[in-house]
Design brief:
This protein is of the alpha/beta class. It has an eight-stranded mixed β-sheet, sandwiched between helices. Strands 7-8 form a two-stranded parallel ribbon.
């Protein structure tokens, strides 16, 4: 059995991932750390192995992220420019908080082979002209440089079933369009519950254990290689 830390468990995908981790016997302990944590009334009954902790991302030294020696670190933390309020705050939350938290969760023991699984986005590219895609691409590389034994990145398409408090009109319209187009290809959308299952399974299997049908690829740079699972691969893994 392994231990799992999830950062971003209150988000659209994170809330499903938390339930997957709690219901799966693979995990002996599950840590939910974040600026806020899941309210008790929203937690499933099988929460005996859950440890919740509210942390300040501006003071991660006090958070004790590495104290529990987590085997797998799951990251579903992120935001949008609109929610963050500015481009600067977006990059702070979407990249700086994520990378710093992953760094803080990595143990100093070279014998402890940790894995990190990061939820990025389709189209992530460190050279993109678009802020969101560039931030995701840079975050992927920064996490890969931290020295985890295994780094897995998910790049899904449109997230179907995301229950957001700030429901966006453009997102709703896009959902209808992509939903129709997805009848022709599996590269465009995925339900968040299926994505959460895929993320959890990847955390269990690791890069070397992924089925060939997932079509995982290697990406990154000389000092920052990682495994990429696209939308089609996430569908395969989440529906197995």
């Amino acid at each position: 059995m392994s231990t799992a830390l999830i950062l971003g468990a209150t988000g659209a995908t994170g809330r499903h991932l938390l339930r997957e981790l709690l219901s799966n016997d693979q995990w002996s302990k599950v840590g939910e750390y974040g600026r806020r944590v899941t309210p008790e009334n929203d937690l499933p009954e099988n929460r005996g192995k859950l440890e919740q902790k509210t942390i300040n991302f501006e003071n991660l030294d006090a958070a004790g992220l590495k104290d529990q020696r987590w085997d797998v670190v799951f990251v579903t933390l992120g935001t949008t420019r609109a929610k963050a309020g500015s481009a600067e705050m977006f990059e702070k939350i979407d990249r700086e908080y994520v990378v710093n938290a992953c760094k803080a969760a990595k143990t100093d023991d070279p014998e402890h082979k940790q894995r990190v699984v990061y939820l990025s986005s389709g189209g992530a590219d460190p050279s993109s002209r678009f802020l969101y895609m560039k931030s995701k691409g840079l975050t992927e590389l920064d996490i890969a440089r931290l020295g985890y034994a295994d780094t897995i990145v998910f790049r899904p398409g449109f997230l179907r079933g995301a229950q957001r408090a700030d429901k966006r009109l453009t997102e709703t319209i896009a959902g209808y369009v992509i939903g129709a187009a997805s009848l022709l290809t599996s590269n465009l959308e995925i339900h968040v519950s299926v994505l959460a299952k895929a993320i959890m399974k990847a955390g269990v299997l690791g890069s070397s254990g992924l089925p060939p049908a997932v079509g995982a690829t290697k990406a990154g740079q000389e000092d920052a290689w990682f495994t990429v699972i696209g939308n089609k691969g996430a569908l395969v893994l989440g529906q197995e």
